[in-house]
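Minutes, project check-in

Agenda point 3 was the complex the collaborators sent over. CS summarized: two entities, 224 residues total, and the question is how they sit relative to each other. Sequences were read into the notes so everyone works from the same version.
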Amino acid sequence: DSGVTQTPKHLITATGQRVTLRCSPRSGDLSVYWYQQSLDQGLQFLIHYYNGEERAKGNILERFSAQQFPDLHSELNLSSLELGDSALYFCASSFGASGNTIYFGEGSWLTVV
Amino acid sequence: GQQLNQSPQSMFIQEGEDVSMNCTSSSIFNTWLWYKQDPGEGPVLLIALYKAGELTSNGRLTAQFGITRKDSFLNISASIPSDVGIYFCAGQRSAGNMLTFGGGTRLMVKP
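CS then shared the predicted structure for the full assembly.
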């Protein structure tokens, strides 16, 4: 158990809908990272927050957004969902903002039908 | 797309055999990490390497940070069935940059 908690674990939704994925980082960690894992693209970095502030953006679509709250939990919002958005979405956390030694949650499986 | 070339893509070995996999890049990385992912779970950090030439072990696992800073290797000695999973390398160019992941090596172990 990495200490990173993600909910929901599984989610099935229809195209065009909007979903919110939630992440609680390890106790004491200030950074939260979101990654997308699909079969054809592997693990792709989406976005990084440190202590409530956005630090870096990766291959995140405009239809996706995220935020980190004062209690350090984070939410990833996915809207106007398309079939190709079906993937595993991972949250990871670390104490600092260096972005290297990060610890992953178990992921949220999103299936868009 | 991915910038780290990880090989082999998959391996099917006999229990007890040693395993080697590697990750190469055309760019220099200052940190290399190796993760293992079991089915239905998130990647788990196995070894982190911070210095060119560094050789670090974690039980039966040994990883090396290549001298050129463009590659890294992971060896597993005396494999056991619970070694089954997908092994990912990840590199970081400098502090604050995000990790770039390789495509993974799927390891299967025959008892």
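Noted in discussion: The two ends of chain B are 35 Å apart (CA to CA).
Follow-up: revisit at the next meeting once the mutant set is ready.
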